[in-house]
Specification:
By secondary structure, the chain is α+β, with helices and mostly antiparallel strands. It has 6 helices and 12 strands.
């Protein structure tokens, strides 16, 4: 059995959650260790668990596409209003973690489920199957190759805005300085509006966040997280489904028969 410390898991959770939420309002301090970035990405990766059938949301209700000359205020208002109405979310993702000092990139992919109340489920299928699950109270990290699940009380960060990008992107300016990445040309080649976010309370795992947003649906299509050492984690989101009624049972974990349960320190 491999005993894992909460510190070894939380940085990864903070990283992948911040990527989607856009912020965390709980300072993780020395819990987060940026040099672990590439190792976290390699270790983080999800088994195929049964999940409720979700219908893909074509766009968020009430959202309106900004004109090509939309102001920054227009974009922020649209984004905040959109995510303020979301209760749950499912999306497929591809991830690339780049360690600057090692000049090394590690790809990963899977499916993410989020729900208000600090509920999350990250199912990595590549490069190694792994599930990271929380109901907002308990955190499970299941690694099939180790035939074990590590269990701990959910970090406080997951019960707040960091565990729900529904809340996070709904209050963007409370936690970030916001500007267009390129004020002269706010949209990228795919037509997405690109925001450059500067956290008001920087963390070791988050010193800068770049978000590419679909101006028709206000869905986040791409996110790039920079840590204090300029390592990056880039995530692209596809097949996003909003408010599909994800069951709370999706955010709990029952170990398969024969799997060892090991507490995290």
């Amino acid at each position: 059995m491999t005993r894992r410390s909460l510190r070894s898991v939380v940085p990864g959770l903070a990283c992948i959650t911040v990527i989607v939420t856009g912020f965390t309002d709980v300072a993780l301090g020395d819990v987060a260790s940026a040099p672990r970035l590439s190792r976290i990405a390699q270790a983080q990766p999800a088994t195929k668990a049964a999940s409720p059938k979700a219908t893909q949301a074509p766009s968020t209700a009430g959202a309106q596409a900004p004109a090509s000359n939309a102001s920054l205020d227009d974009v922020v208002r649209g984004l905040e209003a959109s995510y303020g109405r979301i209760n749950d979310l499912k999306a497929e993702f591809s991830q690339n973690a780049f360690n600057k000092s090692l000049n090394q990139s590690i790809p990963a992919s899977g499916v993410v489920f989020l729900k208000k109340g600090g509920k999350l489920r990250w199912e990595y299928t590549q490069p190694t199957p792994q599930q990271i699950v929380s109901d907002g109270k308990t955190l499970w990290v299941y690694t099939p190759t180790l035939n074990q699940v590590n269990v701990a009380p959910a970090p406080e960060a997951l019960s707040g805005p960091a565990g729900s990008f529904l809340v996070g992107l709904g209050k963007l300016r409370e936690h970030f300085g916001v500007r267009f990445l390129n004020p002269v040309q706010p949209r990228d080649g795919d037509g997405n509006v690109v925001l450059d976010l500067d956290p008001k309370q920087p963390l070791p795992t988050l010193s800068r966040l770049i978000l590419s947003i679909d101006p028709k649906s206000w869905e986040v299509r791409k996110a790039v997280v920079y840590d204090q050492f300029e390592n990056t984690v880039t995530m692209r989101f596809t097949r996003m489904a909003l408010n599909s009624g994800l069951a709370d049972s999706l955010f709990t974990f029952t170990p398969p028969k024969g799997v060892a349960t090991v507490p995290m320190q």
